[in-house]
Write a structure and sequence with these properties.
21% of the residues lie in helices and 35% in strands. The chain has seven helices and 19 strands. The strands form three sheets. A seven-stranded antiparallel beta sheet has the order 1-19-18-9-8-7-10. The chain has a six-stranded mixed beta sheet with strand order 3-2-4-16-15-14, with helices on both faces. The chain has a six-stranded mixed beta sheet with strand order 5-6-13-17-12-11, with no helix packed on it. The longest helix is centred in the first third of the chain and has 17 residues. It starts with a helix and ends in an 11-residue tail after the last strand.
């Protein structure tokens, strides 16, 4: 069951990432949305149920078990944290059968916005501060998820400066991160319809990795991100150890350098970054199977209540930060229900350098399960003036 749930959540992330463009930084978490879709699927009927089950990749009768399995994975894995919350208007009677599908102790009474915002701060350790949707008099039920991922690098970076010489960041003094490692095979290049894409895997503790992905300067952001999402199941055209002198790839140059030993090296440089995003999921309702259940013209969720309900709002807020020591991200997703209607020839060590000095993507992944936690695009990097001592 967990394998199917992971595959379904990753598919949502990939479909969602396909809507990302290069105009501004953005990040998405299908892992934060998928359990909510799975809890709604058996409560919907007709086209609404069909659309939701198609997106989650499970039949309605297995959806709740899949949601429970994914939430359990997130709650019991070191470095990860997750919670489900539901708040019901005091005058709305919900079906006990649906209430019982949710984790114990997660259903409360819908009241002031401050209560929901306090839940967000508590569940994300203060990384996010408010529920991504606003409760108004028409809100009858809120269903939400919170996801936090934290890891520290096995091999930390050094803080420094990065001044790109070309591209959209040219001449800026960026807060640079630099690292040298003997393992060149954390670097791989994949051939895609949008051209070659370079993927640098940064290994963290607790089985959490972050893949940094960069394509050709004119490659669409969505295509570069897709390559990063597909990397674990794809075959690279080259690994870092297969580069020869003068070979190139997006973000990669190869040469020889002086060193006190003859070990080939991989030098990685990139800017420190923090990406924050706010998404209206109903703007891409078809991506999430929400097209029919968000039509409030009639009853869309009969399994939740006898009172006609539909999804009147769906949103996600997310923050993700990559620093010298590690990576952390938090995502809160909420649905608001409303009434419905080779060797160097010189003998010197071969040095492969990957330099991410223009917009690039990232994919944070739980290594053992393959679950994509967060995927995003870095259009703006941290300036040098923001470097902390």
């Amino acid at each position: 069951m967990i394998e199917t749930a992971v595959a379904g959540a990753n598919a949502v992330t990939r479909r969602w990432a396909a809507t990302v463009d290069a105009e501004g930084s953005a990040a998405v978490s299908g892992a934060g949305v998928w359990p909510l879709l799975a809890y709604l699927a058996p409560a919907a009927d007709g086209d609404g149920r069909d659309e939701l089950t198609a997106v989650i990749g499970l039949p309605a009768e297995e959806a709740v078990a899949g949601a429970a399995a994914l939430v359990e994975l997130l709650q019991t894995t070191p470095g990860l944290r997750a919670a489900i919350g539901a708040w019901v208007h005091p005058e709305l009677a919900i079906r006990p059968q649906w209430r019982d599908t949710l984790p114990p102790g997660t259903v409360g009474v819908l009241g002031e916005q401050a209560v929901l915002d306090a839940w967000v701060r508590e569940q994300t350790d203060g990384l996010l501060h408010r529920m991504p949707l606003t409760v108004d008099p028409e809100t009858l039920l809120v269903l939400a998820s919170a996801l936090v991922a934290r890891t520290r690098w096995i091999e930390p970076f050094d803080d420094g400066m990065l001044i790109p010489m070309a591209g959209p960041w040219s001449g800026r003094r960026l807060a640079g991160l630099h690292r040298t490692t003997a393992d060149r095979d954390v670097l791989a290049v994949y051939e895609t319809p949008a051209g070659p894409v370079t993927v640098l895997t940064v290994e963290g503790t607790d089985g959490i990795d972050v893949d940094l992905v960069i394509g050709l300067p004119d490659a669409p952001a969505a295509a570069v991100l897709a390559a990063g999402l597909d990397a674990p199941s794809a075959v690279p055209s080259r690994r870092g150890s297969q580069f020869a002198e003068a070979d190139t790839a997006p973000g990669v140059t190869v040469g020889v350098g002086w060193a006190y030993d003859d070990t080939p090296r991989l030098l990685a440089s990139l800017p420190r970054f923090t990406v924050t995003s706010s998404h209206d999921l109903l703007a891409h309702a078809e991506v999430f199977g929400l097209r029919t259940v968000s039509d409030l013209s009639s009853q869309r969720l009969p399994g939740v209540s006898d009172f006609p309900l539909g999804v009147g709002a769906a949103a996600q807020d997310l923050t993700a930060s990559f620093t010298a020591d590690g990576f952390e991200a938090a995502a809160v997703t909420a649905f608001g229900m409303r009434a419905g209607g080779g060797a160097s020839p010189s003998g010197r060590p071969l040095r492969v350098q990957v330099l991410l000095d223009r917009p690039f993507g990232f994919v944070a992944r739980h290594r053992p399960s393959g679950l994509v936690l967060v995927a995003g695009w870095v259009d703006q990097a941290d300036a040098m003036s923001q470097t902390r001592p």
